[in-house]
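JOB MANIFEST
job_type = single_chain_structure
chain_count = 1
residues = 839
[input]
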Amino acid sequence: MIGIVIVSHSKQLALGVRELAAQMVQNQVPIAVAAGIEDPDNPLGTDPIQVYEAIASVFTDNGVLVLMDLGSALLSAEMAIEFLPEAQQQKVHLCEAPLVEGAMAAVVAAAAGRDIHQVIAEAHGALLAKATQLGVVSRPLSLVSHNTQAKTNIGSPTREIRLIVSNHLGLHARPAAQFVATAARFQSQILVQNLTRNTELVRGDSINQVTTLGVRQGHELAIAATGSDADEALTALQALFANNFGENNVVLNSPPALNHQVTPATHGELSGIAASAGIAIAPVVHYQPTHILITEYHVNDPNPEWQRLQAAIHTARQEIQAVFSQASLQIGDAEAAIFDAQLLFLEDPVLLEAAKERIFEHHINAEAAWQAVVDEVATSYRTLEDSYLQERVDDVVDVGQRVLRLLGGNVPASLHLESPAILVTTDLTPSDTARLDPKKVLGICTTSGSATSHSAIIARTLGIPAVLGVDAQVLHLADGTLMALDGETGRAWVEPESHILDLLAAKQLAWQTAQQEARTTAHQPAITRDGRQVSVFANIGSISDVQVAVASGAEGVGLLRTEFLYLNRTSAPTEEEQLEVYQAIAQVLDNRPLIIRTLDVGGDKPLPYLRIGFPEANPFLGWRGIRFCLDHLDLFKTQLRAILRASVGQQIKIMLPMIASVTEVRAAKVILDEVQAELNQAGISFDAAMKVGIMVEVPAAVAIADQLAAEVDFFSIGTNDLSQYVMASDRTNPRVANLVDALHPAVLRMVQQTIQAAHAAGISVGLCGELAADTLATPILLGLGLDELSVNPQAIAGVKQAIARLSIVESEAIVASALQQDSAIHVRELISTSVIPPA
């Protein structure tokens, strides 16, 4: 059934029209009202959010017809459509038919089972009977039929042509005006459709409608003319297109001299990396990170220099401890743990010995010695081209600059803002980001950076929208220049036009409203419209994380990263230390499932207290995960003993990372059996039926998923690593980052193969990568048949809400098409154009 929406400045008028229309069809047609505003003193007006909600309440695959009265009602309706997914936008039709008569005609046609085009035609012709009765029909009334041709009441012939727009800027203001002026000269009714954008037909004599077709260079238009002079009208319009509307494309291009100049962007849109979702609209304030430049000089006595360096390192350690304490309160232990890594950097004996050697053997000052060793470390990380290590480079530079600042007695650059602003800079260090005040820093815009960097992670946790990697021209903007940015799409606007500001402000409000609605339902089970329940678990890395997860509605923990127990210290944690943490987390979960991933460190995440003995050219393909643990049996057994001991009376499961072969699984199970036997012999209790699973994040594991499924109790797919391995691309490398997308059909086919193998063996399969938190991907994940999604606690509410809007049947249909696409871009377009009921 087609839905009808009535938009009016007057709520009383709209309710009266709805009542009359509903009575005519005995409430057979869904009718929604969006009218008036919440202002007792001046209740007349329209609200785009109200219109959006009205459309959503009656939306169906058959379409929605929106009827409006005058003025801002049209603007509110147009803006409301922008909030809808692109697929739904195509099914919502704005109709210029008279409000009262149009509503009556439309509901009668809808109740009779007519399609949307026939309903529109009836609404357009609603005044025909009245006009005929009064004898005021002076020119044919245009109706729209299903074949997009205009018809009149006198049977005039309809002619149609199709034209390609070749002028540089499409039908912008001046060409649109020429088009409308030409169309208005003729008696025939002119209707226009943008075939490229698949728009509805609009009146060719309406400047607003023609302009809002969004016609750009290369778009194809269908122009229909109905009336006695139809042929002449089309000939005249065709001549406009042939003449490029009098425009010279060469003249419209930017002058060659300007193409090589770096000038401030005063208009238009900037594209970057979407790093932290949200909308920010504020003046820009530039931040210039303090980069200490040092001078090397000879010293006669190296002892004072070494003492200076030690003192600076000691003070730096105290500063980082203070940053860590503050960050723990503000962003949680998991994200704050990066500063523990910085503390370990300052305690690295190899680094300290190298600096001391330079001071004493080369007789150079402390600043020069320290800078030299820091540069060497940073360079060694960069050459590995690994995502985790690229992030560590930021930490190395951050710590290095802090010590140099202390050696030189420099005061750190101030990040204190007098009023709310968007921070514009080349980059932000983790320390810089952690001390931002979200009430003052409304957004972040940088010319470098990665969405997976520590700074981006902190920004997301703080809730500060961020767009990274924009063109360097942004650095030339004057402080106070108005900027708007959308951290979800990775776009920014300099001095945005009013309609952009309106859309962003409305999107911000809609997002905030949706977030609030999601929070209220976060503690309910995630059940699809056709009754399928999907478990939504949390990824955590600390005790405080699990508290947030439970408060956010997590049904369990799908991934406990245990690395935090090992990385913030100078020796491995004891069995008792681990046991205490695992028991504390299990207690908070209150018998909810807890999947503990065994230690996942190695070449790319080195433990400073373990001697690897040799450098790895590419540690991401090296000695890590289960490979590392199988070669450090004491370390591995200690962790297994702690997990087993914590399992008594709890739903704890063990998960093995980076599995690439059946041999590795069997070897790990042998060690687990040995530990269980030792505990039995010692009379120590544990859950003998505890389940064992593996992470599927290596293509080899996908290829032999059927064999692996026979060895374990469950799979958990790690799409972060799997995507990079499948596409052989580092997502922090801007030259290839676009290839690393978990929605690429190659990755999706790997996920499908894994799920099919798991289910054939009768075991469950979950997904704990970042893809699970992307609600755009939710229909894909449901359609693939996943039993469980594990996400960061902050994403739980949104994911549950997305699941509740879907059905398995429609999700499976989307997946069938997605697997046949040729790129991640086309998969995303497919999802966006699929009809998914709004929240």
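[summary]
The two ends are 19 Å apart (CA to CA).
The mean pLDDT is 82.
exit_status = 0
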